[in-house]
Every structure is written in C-alpha cells, then in structure tokens.
Write a structure and sequence with these properties.
The complex is a heterodimer of chains A (219) and B (323).
Chain A: E1 2-3, E2 6-8, H1 12-35, H2 38-41, H3 56-84, H4 95-108, H5 120-149, H6 155-181, H7 189-197, E3 199-201, H8 202-208, H9 210-218
Antiparallel strand pairs in A: 1-2, 2-3
Helix pairs in contact in A: 1-3, 3-5, 4-5, 5-6, 8-9
Chain B: H1 5-20, E1 35-40, H2 54-63, E2 104-112, E3 115-123, H3 132-136, E4 142-144, E5 150-152, H4 162-166, E6 173-175, H5 181-184, E7 193-195, H6 201-205, H7 211-215, E8 221-225, H8 226-240, E9 243-245, E10 255-259, H9 263-273, H10 288-291, H11 293-300, H12 302-316
Parallel strand pairs in B: 1-10
Antiparallel strand pairs in B: 1-8, 2-3, 4-5, 6-7, 9-10
Helix pairs in contact in B: 1-12
The chains are: A mainly alpha (219), B alpha+beta (323).
Chain lengths: 219, 323
C-alpha cells in the first residue's frame, strides 16, 4: 500500500470511473443548459468555433451521447463497490456533527478530528451527489424512453418530471461548484492530485487520515 | 475476463434489450380515435369582401380572454440583447400569427394554366404527431394531449421561444411582459410567454367544435376522429385528383390540407415574397426527433453496459479492497 513515502488511495478503476462521470456530467450540463435558449442570448454562439451551441437538436444529440457513459459509469460504480464490499463513502452516524467540527477547525485553524479514508463531509457530499444524480438519471432516462418509444405521458406528469430534471440540474451544478470549491482550502489540495495519480503522501495521510493509515497498517 | 453463468445471463439480457428497442422511427403513438382536422383549400374563399375572415374573427373573439396583458414595466429589451417582442400595440394584426392572432388566412397568387388564381390558406398550429416543441421544451409547458392537440401552458412558460425555433412552421409566438420571468426580473432569464392555437381545447372537452370551423361559411374546415378524417382526405384527394399535405410531413400531423394544386407550387409562391425561414411553408421538414432515435437508443442501453461492466470487472479482478 505504501511506496516511496506515498500511500495508494484510489485504484485505476475508481479514477477512470470518476473522470468518466465528471466529463460526461460536464457535457450533460453544458448541453442541458443549451436546451434553455441562454447561449444565444449571451452571445456564446458568436465565439470562434461555438456557432453550433444554439442549435437545439445538436445539443440534444450531445446530451444523448453523454448520457450513455454517464449512466453506465454511475451504475458501474454502485455495483462494482457493492460487490467488493467497499462502503467507505457511505455516510455514517454522526457525520453531520463531525462535518461541522472539520469546517470549524479549517476556518479557525484548529485541530481537525482524526479521519478515516474519507472525511465526514465527503461522505455527506457523496450522498447528496448520489441523490441528485439518481433523480437526474431516472428522470432523464424516462424522458429518453418516452422520446424513443413514442410513449404518451399525461402532460401534468411529464411537466413534473421535466421540472424535476431542471431543478436537480441546478442542484448538480451547485454541488459541482462546492466540490471544486473545496480545493480552495489548502488542507484539501493533496486530494486533487490523488484523483490523477491515485496516491497521497504518507505524511499527509498520517496527519489528516490517521484512522485510515492505522487501519491499513494493521491490515 | 472469465465467463460465468452470471456474465452469460447479463449478456443475454443485453441482447434481449437491444432487440426490444424498436428499429422504426420514433413516432408518437397517435391513437386512431384522436382528433384530426381537414382544411379543404378548394373551398376556402378567404371570406372575400369581408374585412376579416370569419375563422380568424371567431378565433380572436373566442380566445380574447386568454390573450396576454403585459406589465408595461416589463416591456423592455432582453438584456444583453437589444430587442424584445411586444405585440400588445399591434393586436389588430391579422395577416400573420401573433400572440393575439392564432390563425390567419394566407393569400397566395398563382398562375394555373395561364390564369391567375388566388389560393386562400388558413394557417395555424399543425398539431404534430411527434411535436419537437413538446419534446424539447425545457420547462414542459408545451404539451401534447392524448387526443391530439398540442398546447402551451403560458402560466409556466418562460418565453425562451425555443418552441418556435424548433417548429418547422414557426407557429408559437412570443409576448414580452407576461409569465413567470417577470417575477425573476431583473435576472436576465426568459422573455415572456408563448401563445398558439390549442384547437379550442376547452370546447373539445365539452364535445363542441373549434370556433374557426363553426364560423366558416364554406365548411372548408372539419374535425373528427383521425381515421375518419384520413379517409375523408383520401376520398377528396381522389375526387379532386388533388394533393394532401400534413398527413406524412414532419412524421405526421393532425392537420391535413387538401388542394387541387400541388403544394410545391403553393410553397414556391409563399416564399416568393417572404423570408423562407419565417414563412409558414408547405415544405418537407424532417422531424429531428425521429433522427435522434438511434442515439437515444444507445443511451437507453447504458444501464445494461454499467451492470454488465461491473459484474465483469468484479469477476475478472479480485484485487485488494479499496475501501
């Protein structure tokens, strides 16, 4: 697990899955926002190479194109870790309280509680992401099935589903902003590199994720 | 990768799902009992001699209470763009579709067998079988009822005018200063609300006939169950040795025109004086939704790919636990 003063944190499968979800999620968000006539209004289509962004059918094609890898990767992630019994990101009792202590410590430069592999707030963020992605995927999938198979759905039901998709898109955007915003805090930055190379330094892990390091050593 | 009973079952499920997705075009299933309308151009006189064709007049009177009443303070440009769409000062406009005029009669002059001929064409929403305005509205305010009519719910419409952009006939029309976007002002979102013919939805619910049809002195327009209207259209086509438009175009619509003159000829006359992009034409638009069918089908198989992939990966690689 440890090599050259570094500790293995994320396997290649985990990193690939993460980046597939991230990239397809960004494409889905970009094309999804493109369904609202915002890009033309704000002259995005006048930027070099972006004349196509106001073509709604192209955005729809892009949305379908990105939806496949996104949904596949999300389901892969759930089943893969479930089958391997890897549940470290699932929220635990007391996570809300612990999150508050972590934020307080980071802001007041105090002592953070000892962490497992993931911070309590990461587990909470994971759960909210999972809920948002679940609603977006289910509603989006339903709409794709409807459009493909020509289902007739009661207009009121359809409207609720479309609005749900829209509202959760904005929640998804907010969560992405918070997810990326977490790296503004210096204490979180080593985790960013670990999403590329899969490793963190042992000294960082021992300092911040001492419970995880201890458990790994015992193992 | 090792193959086991599980992976085999997953593979069979994948193949079965792929086979279950129909290969045909993505047509909305329009029931034979749904409403369809027929417009017989050989009968329409455009109410010659009258200031306003009676169908137009009846439509305006019937729907007057539903016409937009904009907030004057909101009649301002869609920042950062320097325009806004306000028809409230042009409510008398009857020669095109506007938020205050959901039906108009186009007049086209053609030379047929060396003789000048005027063709009068009542134009309104075609009520497509597979309407892109419905499948692409980001707020779900454009809706298609099971019995055929396509309608827009203006109280929930932000007036982005996307429905008009994707409509091959440029039907929905925008009025600024109304709708939920006014609540969000000064946030630069929305532009009003969209308006169009809903085939007198309320009258249909009560078993009555749309006003434009009852007002027509020539009985140029009729409505009935789809199968009956299609049969009638075929019969008239035969009787006139004529042509149909709207039955198959754009994947099918609930508005069938019958004419003795080829529609290509009428279309050429329509775009003689009007910008083709803004005209209500008799062209052959493709239904983009149908073209997207294959891409959507691939997306529909995605869950299966994820499930099969996860089982395959966990069977193939039983490495150390990653937490």
């Amino acid at each position: 697990m440890t090599k050259n003063g570094q500790i293995h944190r994320h396997s290649l499968v985990v990193r690939l899955c993460h980046w597939l979800i991230a990239l397809s999620g960004l494409l889905l968000t970009f094309s999804g926002i493109g369904f609202m006539p915002l890009y033309g209004r704000f002259y995005l289509n006048e930027l070099p190479g972006l004349h196509w962004v106001t073509h709604f059918q192209t955005q729809m094609n892009l949305h379908y194109l990105a939806a496949g890898p996104f949904i596949a990767a999300c389901l892969f992630h759930l089943l893969y870790h479930w089958r391997r019994g890897e549940f470290a990101l699932v929220p635990q009792r007391g996570d809300l309280k612990e999150s508050w202590l972590i934020i307080k410590a980071m802001l007041m430069k105090g002592q953070e509680p000892a962490h497992e592999k993931f911070l309590a707030e990461q587990r909470i963020a994971y759960a909210t992401f999972a809920l948002t992605i679940g609603v977006l995927s289910a509603s989006g999938y339903f709409l794709a099935v409807k459009n493909t198979l020509g289902w007739h759905v009661a207009p009121q039901v359809l409207q609720v589903i479309i609005l749900m998709h829209l509202v959760f898109t904005f929640l998804f955007l907010l969560q992405i902003a918070l997810h990326l915003g977490a790296f503004i805090l210096k204490a979180n930055r080593p985790l960013f590199a670990s999403m590329f190379n899969g490793r963190v330094t042992l000294s960082y892990a021992a300092k911040r994720h001492s419970r995880w390091v201890k458990r790994n050593r015992i193992r | 990768m090792k193959f086991s009973r599980r992976t085999f079952i997953a593979g069979v499920a994948a193949a079965a799902t792929a086979a279950a997705i129909p290969k045909s075009r993505a047509l909305a299933r329009t029931s034979p009992e749904s409403w369809a309308t027929l417009i017989d151009l050989t009968r329409c006189t455009g109410c010659e001699g009258e200031a306003v064709p009676r169908c137009v007049s009846a439509c305006r009177t019937k729907n007057a209470a539903r016409f937009p009443e904009p907030d004057p303070a909101m009649l301002k440009d869609y920042w950062p763009k320097d325009f806004h769409e306000d028809w409230s000062g042009k409510r008398d406009e009857i020669y095109r579709l506007t938020p205050y005029n959901w039906l108009f009669v186009d007049e086209v002059y053609l030379e047929i067998n060396g003789q000048d001929q005027r063709v009068n064409i009542p134009r309104r929403c075609m009520h497509c079988d597979n309407p892109p305005c419905v499948s692409l509205c980001p707020f779900g305010t454009a809706q298609k009822d099971a019995d055929g009519p396509v309608r827009i719910e203006p109280s929930l419409c932000f007036g982005g005018a996307k429905c008009r952009a994707v409509c091959p006939w440029n039907v929905p029309q925008r009025q600024a200063g109304v709708g939920p976007y006014t609540i969000l002002d000064p946030m630069p979102v929305g532009g009003g609300a969209m308006y169009k013919c809903d085939l007198c939805r309320d009258l249909l619910n009560r078993g009555e006939t749309p006003r434009c049809m009852t007002a027509c002195p020539e009985q140029a327009m009729s409505i009935g169950p789809r199968e009956e209207i299609l049969a009638l259209a075929d019969q008239l086509k035969k009787d006139y040795n004529g042509y149909l438009y709207g039955r198959d175009e754009h994947g099918g619509t609930a508005t069938i025109y019958v004419s003795k003159i080829p529609f290509e000829q009428i279309d050429a006359a329509i775009i003689e004086d009007v910008n083709p992009k803004k005209a209500m034409r008799f062209h052959q638009p493709e239904n983009e939704g149908e073209k997207q069918h294959r891409r959507a089908s691939v997306a529909l198989l995605a869950p299966l790919a994820g499930i099969v992939g996860a089982f395959a990966a966990t069977i193939a690689a039983k490495g150390p636990k990653d937490d």
